[in-house]
Amino acid sequence: MKVEGKNELFKKNFFNKAQFALCLIVSTCLSDGLSAQELFFQVPGINTISLRVGDEWTGDPLVYLGDNQDITLSFDELYGDARQLYFEVHHCDATWNKDDLMIMEYWDGFEKNYDMYESSLSFNTTVDYIHYELVIPSSRIKVSGNYLIKVFSQEGELLVTRPFFVAERQVGVRSRVDKNIILGMQELTLAVVYGGLQVSNVLQDIKVAVWQNHNLVMVQWENAPTALHSNEVVYGDELLFEGGNEWRWADSRSIRGHMLTNSRVEFHDPYYHVTLPVDVPAKGYSYHQEWNGAQYIENYDDKLTNSSVGADYVCMHFFLQSVSQSSSVYVVGDIAGCRYPVERNMMEYMPELDAMHIMLWVKQGLANYRFVEVRDDGKVSVAETEGTFGETENNYSIAVYYHDPSEGYDRLVGFKVHNTLKTTNDFIH
Description:
By secondary structure, the chain is mainly beta. The chain folds into 3 domains: 35-167, Immunoglobulin-like; 172-243 and 392-419, Sandwich (Immunoglobulin-like), CATH 2.60.40; 248-381, Immunoglobulin-like (Sandwich). 6% of the residues lie in helices and 41% in strands. The protein contains 5 helices and 27 strands. The protein has helices spanning 3-13, 36-39, 103-106, 202-205, 307-310, and strands at 46-53, 62-64, 70-78, 85-92, 117-121, 129-137, 145-153, 158-167, 172-180, 185-193, 206-212, 220-222, 227-228, 232-235, 240-242, 248-251, 264-268, 271-275, 295-297, 313-321, 327-332, 348-350, 355-363, 365-375, 380-381, 395-404, 409-419. The strands form 6 sheets. Strands 9, 10, 13, 14 and 15 form a 5-stranded antiparallel β-sheet that branches. Strands 16, 19, 21, 24 and 25 form a 5-stranded antiparallel β-sheet that branches. A 5-stranded mixed β-sheet has the order 17-18-20-23-22, with no helix packed on it. The model is unreliable at 1-29 (pLDDT under 50).
């Protein structure tokens, strides 16, 4: 088939479908700041977006002020020609609103940054794409806080936005996670140790944000301490999260069928289709190692070509035996483009199978995914689709913000990741 035919077929099956509009289901979780649609924006045709620091690709994109590390944003533009791009870096407050800092106060560079990226054409793939990589040197960043990178076409069209963090080591964070096995919940208690940071008004100037498994959309805020001591403040009021279950695996590294999961690979001209086994709602907890929603790009069938341009795109089919018809079910994880429910990842009921189904365009690799339910009342839960268990391994990101009235912006003065299996619980009173 000619490339033009593939292009038109792709557009017909991808760009023109309403479910690929980036519509937020849970927009209130970012408090009064930007919606998730604005934080994690991408136009149709942009796929496999990754924002990583150095070689770390599973966690939050975080650098420490003064450390010489590069922040790399990569993504693919499907069926397009290479074009000139530029990016902007914006400093935001704790709730991701753009603040009043001038660009020269936080960024050593221009407002529009050209020539800091590379583009490469995919090689020997059924789906043609351009792979872009933009590098942000952390040495150009002058102050800590929340940052938003925006990528534009030369004509000024916004293509991608992604958040990242620049932290200081001004405060310490002590943490503990208590596991409620009966209710399947996990409760956090935190203590922020001031150290040398002078804070005049704890209630007004300190904010603490907590989120699970790098899902920044489902953040919980702590502004009211439960205890004050001479050099620390304790937070422990209703920081409750569903324990959930371990994430599922999807393997598309080999279209020749050498995969971890028992998937079926078929070629329906012009695309490869990978059909995962029909999943069932989890009834119990069983530990296995996973990446808490991350995705690793790899093509097993071509070891000579860099997978960033040598991995193909496949049509991946997900199935879940039917759950309650009074709710909507979504596939989430980096493999689906985000770790929170959006309209483009909503499954459809297939009565002939009595199962939910969705097809997603997925770049070859190994990845985690899970099924999330959004109920009629708007509540987001994995209890019916994955089960929720207190003993589940989870990562909790803890960010401590300090608003110094004399400086006029929110500093990120401390950051910690608490892993429920690997991090020792601190004693907090």
